[in-house]
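General statements about sequence and structure are easier to judge against a single worked case. When preparing material for the folding task, we compiled for one chain both its residues and its backbone structure tokens. The amino acid sequence and the backbone structure tokens for this protein are reproduced below:
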Amino acid sequence: MKSRMLTCITAMTLFAALAMPVRVVAQKGEQQQAEHPPHYTVTDLGPSGNPFSQATFVNNNGLVTGFDTAPDGTSHAVLWRNGVITDISEPGLGGPNSGAGGATDFGLVMGGAETSDTDPNNENFCGYPTGLQCLAFLWQNGVMTQLPTLGGTNASWGAINNRGEVAGIAENSYMDPECPDVVAVNGTGPQVLDFEAVIWGPGPGEIRELPPLPGDTVGMAFGINDHGQAVGTSGTCANTVLPGFAAGPHAVLWERDGSVHDLGNLGGTVNTAVLGVGTAAFFINNQGQVAGVSALPGNETFHAFLWTRQRGMQDLGTLPGDVNSAGLGINNRGEVVGASVGGDGNPLTGSPRAFFRQSGVMSDLNALVQNNPPLYLLTAFAINDSGEIAGFGVTSGGDIHGFLATPCDRHHADTEGCEDDTEGIRAEGTGTIERPRVILPENVRELLWKQLRWGRFGAELMGPQ
């Protein structure tokens, strides 16, 4: 993803924010959730005038990670806390582009960054046209530390748990003749080396390879819970597309001992010719519930799924009238967030809208927002255990900005905009507010296409080109 904000604050301010006590939220299953979805107040994370920023994750302390566009057009890893943005990209790993992808409840941040070294295979692993190597990193107390590969050139992040373990993707040194020798539909490649799902940590410099399914040769890990279970996708170098807009044929779960399990599908596998059409697991909570996306029969469309050990893979469908959807995040209460796409399923023409799913009901997040929101919410990427949601939306001026949506409930009674709705139910008794769908103008669609490059995000939003 391309860059974002260049605002700096003092280290003391940041460290004080990271040290705030964790909000403890009771964990409960879907069947115990409130009958009505909460209402939300939305914060535009901005900054004003910035063409593109994205919030990728929110931890249980309300620390938001993401990307901001710098004046020179590069992507900078940033943190948001209490309305303050902190650029953590410098000194970085030496390259121009970086992004923050997640954080523990204790402020250990992970993400990805380019180095100053040229990729000897010119793979364009991160989707930028720089020709540089890119690696996963950990950041804490102003120090960014690169994470190792499996002997190859590049690596990319997926998620971090509260043990400090990072799930992701790392290249090995095997030059696979099955790898495509052309640029992939998302702009990465040509790919030369195989890549595998890995877990870094919890010790410094530790890396552990996760095996793909029998018969497969590559894998990618996108999510990890506090028990060390990881989820992602498995395939071959020929049928697995690296992030952004990642896609693979098999959604998988790795147990802590490294054993791998196929989570099934909704009738399809993968289509490398169409952006985002594949089957992958993106997030796993501490109850072992998994959110992701699966191709449907025909491999032209895809739906969000929820997988549980008791029920297997459930098709979550779409918002009314939509074609595609993807489950991108799930919290320990079993609430799922993601995106639902209308029209022909392509956000470049049909526009996505963020969704929130609770108690078996998928709702348009825009319809749950208090009056006069600063953004139309396009995609929700993460939800924490107190129901705060991070993602991005479009401003009335056509900029794409990260957002934080805060539920108006008893835990957020002092949040601005929630004072008169602390139970999450409007005085007039209506559960939702109909908001007209925003059809993105051509310049905004081009901006999305240009910027949605980094990490696992975006794969779920794109349809046929």
Remarks:
- The first helix runs from residue 11 to 18.
- The helical segments are 11-18, 442-451.
- Residues 284 and 290 are 4 Å apart (CA to CA).
